[in-house]
């Protein structure tokens, strides 16, 4: 991001070239990968915010994979207060109706990086569809569900 700017907007225009086969595009994700040495505190809601484990905590020998790759038992994390916790990116999912703002903060310098959802008009999964938000990385996701479209439609409907 450029110095002196307070934010940026993202959008996509998908083109279906003549002669290409039909396709369905049901979801688009915009992922922001932040600096792990800076952004260590994540907030999704007033009651869901915390200092997060480091990405290295999820790898052996600091972490032990559980039943599926996203779930990791923190055996010897960098922050010993997190020992024996389970980290799983699905812990930080929420219903779309509750997904208004989520993001990360940094204390040096004192800045934040936020995903703000101004409206739900682009979402087609309904208010109780769950989506990922932020997770260890530090990673922040913006999930866009589109209406069904295929063929010669040029712009997704989200």
From TrEMBL:
One of its GO terms (molecular function) is carbohydrate binding. Pfam families: Rhamnogal_lyase (PF06045). InterPro entries: GH-type_carb-bd (IPR014718), Polysacch_Lyase_4 (IPR051850), Rhamnogal_lyase (IPR010325). This is Uncharacterized protein. It comes from Acorus gramineus.
């Amino acid at each position: 991001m450029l110095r002196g700017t307070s934010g940026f907007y993202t959008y996509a225009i998908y083109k279906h070239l003549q002669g290409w086969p039909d396709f369905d595009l049901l979801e688009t994700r915009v992922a922001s990968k932040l600096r792990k040495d800076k952004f260590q505190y994540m907030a999704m809601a007033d009651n869901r915010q915390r200092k997060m484990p480091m990405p290295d905590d999820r790898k052996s020998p600091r972490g032990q994979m559980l039943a599926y790759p996203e779930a990791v038992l923190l055996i010897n994390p960098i922050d010993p207060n997190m020992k024996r916790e389970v980290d799983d990116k699905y812990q930080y999912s929420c219903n779309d109706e509750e997904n208004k703002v989520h993001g990360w903060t940094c204390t040096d310098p004192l800045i934040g990086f936020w995903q703000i959802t101004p409206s739900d008009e682009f979402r087609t999964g309904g208010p109780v569809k769950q989506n990922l938000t932020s997770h260890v990385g530090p990673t922040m996701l913006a999930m866009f569900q589109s209406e069904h479209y295929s063929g010669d439609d040029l712009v997704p409907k989200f």
